[in-house]
Write a structure and sequence with these properties.
The chain has 202 residues and is mostly helical. It has 7 helices and no strands. The protein is globular and about 55 Å long.
Length: 202
């Protein structure tokens, strides 16, 4: 793990960057990696549970996470752009997942990510205008979810264990969001918009 951290620092940081900036590159990179792994795990679980639509949605998000990871490594000066884009994609993906399970009747907490992502991005100390963009996008998607809810098809048959597992995961992510946005946990300086792992449907 230490070798991986050192490699990421060398790959993404410039010789003129101070130690805090180098650490922030690593901190910004780790959530994207975990997002990729978690999105892949949920993709597999949803297909196993007989929910191919959710599986496809998560597969798309997994692909986006891979692209964001590669983009951050190949173009480290554009890491902020890739991180922000991934947050916006995560918001849109979770709206699609919410619609796919029949809206609020589905009982899946996809829309909670529309709160977790912008709150974490805003209070992480990252770029404020881009954080506001993420917040506005989340509010718009929440509005869309409310507007279309009455028109959605009945929810598919979702295994009880899957609903409990997923909602528990989102709840834990929300608690992690609360801890990461506390004053003691905020970085002194941040080089990118930090987002938690928004495994779509996550």
């Amino acid at each position: 793990m230490e070798q991986l951290v050192t490699w990421v620092e060398r790959r993404m940081a410039l010789s003129s960057d101070d130690e805090i900036t180098r650490q922030q590159y690593v901190v910004s990179f780790v959530p994207v990696v975990f997002s990729t792994l978690l999105a892949l795990a949920w993709t597999i679980l949803f297909f196993i549970a007989g929910l191919p639509t959710l599986g496809i949605i998560h597969a798309v998000y997994t692909f986006c996470c891979v692209l964001a990871t590669l983009g951050g490594l190949l173009l480290p000066r554009r890491a902020l752009v890739f991180g922000t884009a991934l947050c916006l994609i995560g918001i849109a993906i979770n709206l699609l997942a919410h619609v796919a399970v029949g809206g609020f009747d589905g009982g899946m907490w996809h829309l909670l990510w529309l709160v977790i992502l912008p709150v974490t991005a805003y209070f992480s100390g990252g770029n404020r205008p881009l954080s506001v963009l993420i917040l506005v996008s989340a509010v718009l998607c929440l509005g869309v979810a409310l507007a279309v809810d009455a028109r959605l098809a009945p929810p598919p048959l979702i295994p009880h264990w899957l609903r409990l597992l997923y909602n528990g995961f989102v709840l834990l992510a929300g608690m992690g969001c609360k801890n990461s946005t506390s004053p003691a946990a905020r970085p002194t300086r941040c080089c990118s918009t930090s987002c938690p792992t928004p495994s779509p449907g996550n």
